[in-house]
Amino acid sequence: MSVEVVIPNITPGTGEGPHWEDNTQRLVFVDVEQKTVLRWDSLTRNIETLQLEDMVGCIVPCKKGGYLVGVGRQLAHLNWSSKNLTNLHEIPLHGIQNMFNDGKCDPAGRFWIGSTGKTLSYEPLEIELEKGKLYCLDSDGSFHKHLDKLNVSNGLAWTSDHRTMYFIDSIPGQIMAFDYDVTSGNISNRRTVVDCRTLNLTDNGNAGVPDGLTIDTDGNLWVAFYGAGLVVCFNPQTGFLADVEILRYNQAMI
């Protein structure tokens, strides 16, 4: 498997939360530390950038227009044309400085978004522990907390039969599975499918931490390992399948 650089040197900080807009052939994503959201047009090759006032963890397009973004402790709606940011929900302050991190829509269109505690160190990665949570914004606008006492709430994915949800807590490095009810949005039967602390992925012992997550048509999980320069593929039932080495070490999302 080969890796091709499509947009070189696009962000000075940590690029996160890529989402492909099939109807417009555009890629939207964020730069966490630079507090920006970016939109790349694959047809014109142009890049648009909007500056926000706080660190931004994720962005997803809305069916009726605009985008949902996690900005600091706010979940907000962004109107790209007017640059107007409308706050929808704000989570309470936990610890030193918690913030929204990764987020995705489930098969029913609900928006799941997690939070994390303050980053105390990047190398090695050290986070204020047990300050993260996992929330869900339902289609009626209600906002619910589903998980508590997380460390770094990260990757999310759902199986094609809509019966299982996968979720990553980057520290301690676990890929978890839940029974998922697509009608109600409830999750249950939490279990660990991959404990990344048991893996030996690199020769130098720097395995990084599991970060972004996606699922392919065969039900395999593809995970970006931040700090290791690897994207790793797992079968949730049998374990490790393959890895792909990336030139840069800090892969955050796939």
Identify the notable features of this structure and list them briefly.
Thrombin, subunit H, Neuraminidase, 254 residues, four-stranded antiparallel beta sheet, mainly beta, globular, 0% helix
Q: How are the strands of the largest sheet arranged?
A: 1-2-3-4
Report the CATH topology name of the largest domain: Neuraminidase
Tell me the series of helices and strands, N- to C-terminal.
EEEEEEEEEEEEEEEEEEEEEE
Rounded to the nearest angstrom, the distance between the terminal CA atoms is: 15 Å
Q: Give the structural class.
A: mainly beta
Helices, by number, come to 0
**What is the CATH architecture assignment of the largest domain?**
6 Propeller
| CATH level-1 class of the largest domain | Mainly Beta
Mean pLDDT: 90
Q: What is the rounded Rg?
A: 17 Å
Number of strands: 22
Supply the number of structural domains.
Answer: 2
Beta percentage is over 45%
Low-confidence stretches: none
Q: Which superfamily, in CATH terms, is the homologous superfamily of the largest domain?
A: TolB, C-terminal domain
The biggest beta sheet is recorded as: 4 strands, antiparallel
Multimer state: single chain
In which range does the helix fraction lie? under 10%
The general outline is globular
Keywords: Metal-binding, Zinc
Cofactor: Zn(2+)
Binding site for substrate: 101
Active site: 211
